[in-house]
C-alpha cells in the first residue's frame, strides 16, 4: 500500500511542530491504521506540540489519526485517509496521584499498567480491566474497552472525572476537573469515550480510584444450556452477594458442550468467604472455588495481537440482562465463541481466522437480531479487511443526525480520523 | 432580572407565543395551557426563590408527542422554552423566560415499566424520585441517587441537573444510573438515546445530556438502572467537639479502604438549626456530627462498623449512636436532609452554597470559611458530604438589614473562590443554572467554555432550549441547519412582516 505523499512544506511544518517526525515503518505495516498507511508519523512529547501539529494540519488541510500505543488501531472502520499518524506514546507521564482524594491523572500515552502501578503503591486501583495488553489511557478511552470488573463499578464513563483535549483546530480545552463530584458545565468526557479519536485528541485524563480489595475469590459452575447460564446469572444478580464480576464463557471446551458461569467476590477476607459460600449455594453442587481468575482472565475471546488476515471476526454484543440466553443461543447457532460479562449485559463473540464472508455476515446478522431484540447492539470490533469491507461495522445507530452535528461543530473539516466511526463519521 | 437573549430569541414576540399557544390548545386539554397572568405567576421561580421571572406561557403536556409538538412550535417561531419538573432546583436552572414557554412535566408521572430481571425501570420525566424506589422495593431493588429533595423532585429534573445525594459517595450520580431516554431535540424531534443495554454504538449523547440543565433539549421517558437493596444497612450518628476531629475521622475511614454509602458532616450552627426544626436528637454540645452509613453484605458491614467506631473514637468522638431500627435511622437522616430548610429557624434569610473541594483540603478550607465569617460578621452554617468534599455552606443574613444581603453574597462568592483555589468545583450537585453562570469563567478558560458551547450549538443552534443558563455568554452558532433557513414561518404565513 502506498502512503499519501505530503508536500515538502507540510513535512517541514510538522517537523518543526513537534519533537520528532518519521516516515511510517512499512516493513510489517506497524504504522498502518487498519491497512491505511499514513503519510508521516508525528511524535510530540508535550501538549503544546500536539496543539501545534493540529494547527499545522489545519493550515495544510491534513487528515490526522491519533494513536496511543497502537494495540487496537485496527478496531472500528478504517479511516478514509491518514496524512499524519499522531503518535501519543511520548506523552506517557502519570501526572498526579492523590491517594487521600482517590484520584489519578495520566497523559494519553501512559499505559494503563503504569497507572495501576502508581495507584497500587497506595493499595488503590483504577477499576478498569486491561483487556488488551499494553493499552494506553488514550486508547482505552477512544475504544471504551471494559472487562469483568464493570459489574461492580461500571466502565470508563463511570470513572473519568476530567479530561484535557486538543481540538481539531489546535485549541487546548478541558472539561470536568480533579474532584469526583462536579456538575459545572458539560461532561465532554462522556462524548469522547468510545469516539475512536473522531472528536478531539485526548491528551490527559483524570480518574476516580477505588481501594484495592484485601481478598478475592472466583466461584465457577458449569451451565449445560444457555437457559441455565441465564438462570445462574439471575440468581447471583438477585442475591445480595455484591458480585465484583459475573462472567460467562461459551462453550467451555472444544467439544462445544455447555459453558461456565464464574462469579468474582472481592472485599474483606471474612466477608468474601461468607459471600462465596452464598454464591456456591446458588450455583449448585458442581460449583468450585479458586483465587485464580477463569483461564482467560480479562482477555477477549480472540487473539488481540493477531494482525492482517490472522485476525478473528471479533464482535461486541450488548443486551438487557434477561436476554443472556437468547444471545448465547444465537452465538451457538453462529458457531461463535463467547466470553464476557453476563452480569452487565456485555459479551464478546469471536469466529476464528479464516471465517468466510458468508459465514461472517450470517453471524453478525444473527447476533445483531438477537441483541437488538433485547435492547442492545452488535458491533464488529475487528476483522480482516476483506471481511470488514462486506460488513456493517456499527449496525443501526439511532440519533445519528445529532451525532453528525456534534462532529461538525467540533471538527468541521472532518480532519480527525474520518470514516472510523458510525455513519462514516 | 434580565436574561441575555442574543443570538436566540430576540425575535420572540407576542405573535410567536400566541402561535405556540394555539398549537398547545389544539393538542392539550384546556387546563394544560396557562396564559392568564395571575396563574402564570405561580411558576415565576424554582427552588431558588430570589430569581423571579413570569413566563409568557405555561404548558403541561401529558405525553412525549404533546411535549415534542410544543417544542416544534417553539422552534418554528424561535420562541425560547424552559423545561421544569417539580421546580425544586437550587440554581435557577428552571427559571422561566419572560418571552418564552415553560414546559411543565408534572402531568407525565407514570412508571411505565418495572423490570427487576433487567435491573431497569422506565419512568416518565415527572415521576418523583422516591416513587421509583417505592415501586422497586417490593422487588428487592431501589433507585440509588437520593437528593435531599427526593420526596418531591422529579426524575426529569434529576437528569437535567445530574443530581447527586448523600449516597453518591459509593453509588455515583444520576449519570451513572440513567441508561436510556427519549429525547426531544430543540427541533421538536424525538430520538432515542442510550437504551436498556450499556455502550450504545455512537457518541454517548446521553452522557452529554445528563447534567446539561435543559440547555440541549428535554428528556421524557427515561430508563434507569435499579440497584439491589443491600443485605444490611447501619447508620451511625457520631458527635465530636470540633469539625477538625470529624474531618480526621473521615480521613481515617477513607484511608483504611472503607467506602461507606455516606459520610455527612454538620457543624455546630447547622446542628442547632436541625435540632430546632426536627428534634432529631443530635448529641448535645457537639461542635460537629458525622452521619455515617455502611451498607452491603452483613458480615462486611459488621466488620466495617467496628473499624469505623474505632476510627471515630481515636479521633475524639464523645458519643456514637447506632440507629437500632428504621425509625431511628429515619430520624438521623431527617436532621441531615432537612438541614437547609431548618436554617430558616435561626436566620430570616440564607444562601445555600454548593461547592466542591478535594476531600483532603477539608480542614484548611473550613478554617478559611471560619475566618471569612469572622472577618465579615456573616454567620455560616456548614452541612456537607464529607466523603466526597461537597460543601453546602449556608450563609445566613437578614434581608431587612441594609447591606446584609450584599455582604452574604460576597462571603458566598468568596467560598466558591476557595473551592476553585483548592482545585475543586463551583457546583457538586445543584448545578450552574442562572445563579452561577457568572462564576464559570473562574473555573474554566474561554477555550473550555467555547468547546462546551460547540456541543450546545450542535444540539440547539437557535439557542432556544433554556437560554441564558450555564454559560455567561452565548456562543454564535453560525448557520442554522435544516428547516429554519430562509424567511421566518410567520413571515411565510403572512402573519407578521418584521421581527
Concise structural overview:
The complex is a heterodimer of chains A (425) and B (499). By secondary structure, chain A is of the alpha+beta class.
Tell me what you see in this structure:
The complex is a heterodimer of chains A (425) and B (499). The radius of gyration of chain A is 22 Å and the shape is globular. Chain A has an 8-stranded antiparallel beta sheet. Chain A has a 5-stranded antiparallel beta sheet with strand order 5-6-10-8-9. Chain A has a 4-stranded mixed beta sheet with strand order 1-2-4-3, with helices on one face. Chain A has 3 domains: 1-212 and 396-420, Uridine Diphospho-n-acetylenolpyruvylglucosamine Reductase, domain 3 (2-Layer Sandwich); 215-290, Alpha-Beta Plaits (2-Layer Sandwich); 308-389, BMC (bacterial microcompartment) domain (Alpha-Beta Plaits, 2-Layer Sandwich). Chain A has 425 residues and is of the alpha+beta class. In chain A, helix 1 (8-17) packs antiparallel against helix 2 (47-59), helix 8 (226-238) packs antiparallel against helix 10 and helix 10 (324-334) runs antiparallel to helix 11. The model of chain A has no long low-confidence stretch (mean pLDDT 95). In chain A, 62% of the residues are buried. Chain A has helices spanning 8-17, 47-59, 112-120, 137-143, 150-153, 156-159, 188-192, 226-238, 269-283, 324-334, 357-373, 385-389, 400-410, and strands spanning 20-22, 40-43, 64-67, 84-87, 94-98, 103-107, 124-125, 160-166, 172-176, 201-208, 210-211, 215-223, 245-250, 259-267, 288-290, 313-318, 337-341, 346-351, 377-382. Chain B is an alpha+beta fold and 499 residues long. Chain B folds into 4 domains: 9-104 and 450-474, Uridine Diphospho-n-acetylenolpyruvylglucosamine Reductase, domain 2 (2-Layer Sandwich), CATH 3.30.43.10; 111-228, Uridine Diphospho-n-acetylenolpyruvylglucosamine Reductase, domain 3 (2-Layer Sandwich); 232-341, 2-Layer Sandwich (Alpha-Beta Plaits), CATH 3.30.70.2190; 347-431, Alpha-Beta Plaits (2-Layer Sandwich), CATH 3.30.70. Chain B has 17 helices and 19 strands. Chain B has helices at 14-27, 37-40, 64-76, 129-136, 155-161, 168-171, 205-209, 243-255, 268-278, 298-314, 326-337, 339-342, 362-376, 404-421, 440-443, 446-459, 489-492; strands at residues 33-34, 57-59, 81-84, 101-104, 111-115, 120-123, 141-142, 178-184, 190-194, 218-225, 227-228, 232-240, 262-267, 288-296, 319-322, 349-352, 355-356, 380-385, 390-397. In chain B, the strands form 4 sheets. In chain B, strands 12, 13, 14, 15, 16, 17, 18 and 19 form an 8-stranded antiparallel beta sheet that branches. In chain B, strands 5-6-10-8-9 form a 5-stranded antiparallel beta sheet. In chain B, strands 1-2-4-3 form a 4-stranded mixed beta sheet. The two termini of chain B are 23 Å apart. The chains are: A alpha+beta (425), B alpha+beta (499). The interface between A and B is large, with 91 and 92 residues.
Amino acid at each position: 500500500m502506498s502512503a499519501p505523499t505530503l508536500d515538502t512544506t507540510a513535512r517541514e511544518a510538522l517537523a518543526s511542530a513537534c519533537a520528532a517526525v518519521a516516515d511510517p515503518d512499512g516493513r510489517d505495516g506497524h504504522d498502518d491504521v487498519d491497512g491505511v498507511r499514513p503519510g508521516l508519523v508525528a511524535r510530540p512529547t508535550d501538549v503544546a506540540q500536539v496543539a501545534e501539529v493540529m494547527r499545522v494540519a489545519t493550515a495544510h488541510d491534513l487528515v490526522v489519526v491519533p494513536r496511543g500505543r497502537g494495540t487496537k488501531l485496527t478496531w472500528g472502520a478504517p479511516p478514509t485517509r491518514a496524512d499524519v499518524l499522531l503518535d501519543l506514546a511520548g506523552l506517557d507521564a502519570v501526572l498526579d496521584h492523590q491517594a487521600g482524594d482517590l484520584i489519578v491523572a495520566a497523559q494519553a500515552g501512559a499505559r494503563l499498567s503504569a497507572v495501576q502501578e502508581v495507584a497500587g503503591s497506595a493499595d488503590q486501583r483504577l477499576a478498569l480491566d486491561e483487556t488488551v495488553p499494553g493499552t494506553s489511557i488514550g486508547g482505552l478511552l477512544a475504544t471504551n474497552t471494559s472487562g469483568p470488573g464493570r459489574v461492580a463499578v461500571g466502565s470508563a464513563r463511570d470513572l473519568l472525572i476530567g479530561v484535557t483535549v486538543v481540538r481539531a483546530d489546535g485549541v487546548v480545552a478541558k472539561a470536568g476537573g480533579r474532584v469526583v463530584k462536579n456538575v459545572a458545565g458539560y461532561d465532554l468526557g462522556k462524548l469522547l469515550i468510545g469516539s475512536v479519536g473522531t472528536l478531539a485528541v485526548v491528551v490527559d485524563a483524570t480518574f476516580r480510584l477505588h481501594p484495592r480489595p484485601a481478598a478475592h475469590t472466583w466461584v465457577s459452575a458449569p451451565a449445560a444450556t444457555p437457559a441455565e447460564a441465564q438462570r445462574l446469572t439471575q440468581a447471583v444478580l438477585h442475591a445480595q452477594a455484591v458480585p465484583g464480576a459475573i462472567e460467562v464463557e461459551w462453550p467451555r471446551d472444544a467439544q462445544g458442550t455447555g459453558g461456565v458461569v464464574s462469579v468474582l467476590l472481592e472485599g474483606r477476607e471474612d466477608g468474601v468467604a461468607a459471600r462465596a459460600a452464598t454464591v456456591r449455594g446458588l450455583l449448585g453442587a458442581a460449583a468450585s472455588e479458586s483465587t485464580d481468575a477463569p483461564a482467560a482472565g480479562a482477555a477477549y475471546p480472540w487473539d488481540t495481537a493477531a494482525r492482517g488476515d490472522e485476525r478473528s471476526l471479533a464482535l461486541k454484543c450488548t443486551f438487557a440482562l434477561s436476554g443472556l440466553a437468547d444471545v448465547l443461543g444465537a452465538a451457538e447457532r453462529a458457531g461463535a465463541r463467547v466470553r464476557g460479562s453476563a452480569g452487565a449485559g456485555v459479551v464478546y463473540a469471536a469466529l476464528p481466522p479464516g471465517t468466510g464472508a458468508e459465514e461472517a455476515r450470517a453471524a453478525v446478522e444473527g447476533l445483531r437480531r438477537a441483541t437488538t431484540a433485547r435492547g442492545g447492539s452488535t458491533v464488529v470490533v475487528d476483522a480482516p479487511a476483506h471481511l470488514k469491507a462486506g460488513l456493517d461495522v456499527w449496525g443501526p445507530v439511532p440519533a445519528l443526525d445529532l451525532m453528525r452535528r456534534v462532529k461538525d461543530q467540533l471538527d468541521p473539516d472532518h480532519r480527525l480520523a474520518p470514516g472510523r466511526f458510525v455513519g462514516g463519521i | 432580572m434580565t436574561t441575555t437573549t442574543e443570538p436566540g430569541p430576540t425575535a420572540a414576540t407576542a405573535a410567536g407565543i400566541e402561535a405556540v399557544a394555539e398549537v398547545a390548545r389544539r393538542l392539550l386539554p384546556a387546563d394544560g395551557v396557562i396564559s392568564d397572568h395571575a396563574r402564570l405567576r405561580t411558576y415565576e421561580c424554582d427552588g431558588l426563590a430570589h430569581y423571579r421571572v413570569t413566563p409568557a406561557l405555561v404548558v403541561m403536556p401529558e405525553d412525549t408527542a404533546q411535549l415534542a409538538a410544543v417544542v416544534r412550535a417553539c422552534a418554528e417561531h424561535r420562541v425560547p422554552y424552559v423545561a421544569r419538573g417539580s421546580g425544586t432546583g437550587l440554581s435557577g436552572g428552571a427559571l422561566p423566560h419572560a418571552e418564552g414557554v415553560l414546559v411543565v412535566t408534572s402531568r407525565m408521572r407514570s412508571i411505565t415499566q418495572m423490570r427487576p430481571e433487567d435491573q431497569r425501570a422506565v419512568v416518565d420525566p415527572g415521576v418523583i424520585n422516591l416513587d421509583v424506589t417505592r415501586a422497586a422495593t417490593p422487588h428487592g431493588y431501589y433507585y440509588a441517587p437520593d437528593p435531599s429533595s427526593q420526596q418531591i423532585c422529579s426524575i426529569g429534573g434529576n437528569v437535567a441537573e445530574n443530581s447527586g445525594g448523600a449516597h453518591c459517595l459509593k453509588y455515583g450520580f444520576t449519570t451513572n444510573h440513567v441508561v436510556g431516554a427519549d429525547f426531544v431535540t430543540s427541533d421538536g424531534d424525538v430520538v432515542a438515546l442510550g437504551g436498556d443495554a450499556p455502550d450504545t454504538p455512537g457518541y454517548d449523547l446521553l452522557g452529554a445530556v445528563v447534567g446539561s440543565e435543559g440547555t440541549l433539549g428535554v428528556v421524557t421517558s427515561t430508563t434507569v438502572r435499579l440497584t439491589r437493596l443491600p443485605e444490611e444497612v447501619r447508620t451511625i450518628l457520631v458527635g465530636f467537639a470540633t469539625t477538625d476531629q470529624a474531618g480526621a475521622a473521615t480521613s481515617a475511614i477513607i484511608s483504611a479502604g472503607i467506602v461507606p454509602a455516606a459520610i455527612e458532616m454538620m457543624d455546630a450552627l447547622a446542628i442547632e438549626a436541625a435540632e430546632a426544626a426536627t428534634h432529631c436528637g443530635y448529641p448535645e454540645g457537639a461542635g460537629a456530627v458525622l452521619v455515617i452509613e455502611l451498607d452491603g453484605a452483613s458480615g462486611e458491614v459488621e466488620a466495617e462498623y467496628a473499624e469505623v467506631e474505632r476510627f471515630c473514637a481515636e479521633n475524639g468522638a464523645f458519643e456514637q449512636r447506632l440507629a437500632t431500627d428504621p425509625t431511628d435511622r429515619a430520624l438521623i437522616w431527617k436532621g441531615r436532609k432537612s438541614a437547609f430548610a431548618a436554617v430558616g429557624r435561626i436566620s430570616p434569610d440564607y444562601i445555600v452554597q454548593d461547592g466542591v473541594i478535594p476531600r483532603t483540603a477539608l480542614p484548611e478550607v473550613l478554617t478559611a470559611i471560619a475566618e471569612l465569617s469572622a472577618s465579615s460578621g456573616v454567620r455560616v452554617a456548614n452541612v456537607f458530604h464529607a466523603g466526597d468534599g461537597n460543601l453546602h455552606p449556608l450563609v445566613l443574613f437578614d434581608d431587612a438589614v441594609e447591606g446584609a444581603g450584599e455582604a452574604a453574597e460576597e462571603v458566598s462568592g468568596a467560598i466558591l473562590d476557595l473551592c476553585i483555589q483548592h482545585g475543586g468545583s463551583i457546583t457538586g450537585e445543584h448545578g450552574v443554572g442562572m445563579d452561577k453562570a457568572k462564576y464559570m469563567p473562574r473555573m474554566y478558560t474561554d477555550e473550555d467554555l467555547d468547546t462546551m458551547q460547540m456541543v450546545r450549538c450542535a444540539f440547539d443552534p437557535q439557542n432556544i432550549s433554556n437560554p441564558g443558563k450555564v454559560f455567561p455568554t452565548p456562543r454564535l452558532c453560525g448557520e442554522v441547519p435544516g428547516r429554519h433557513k430562509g424567511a421566518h414561518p410567520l413571515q411565510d404565513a403572512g402573519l407578521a412582516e418584521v421581527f
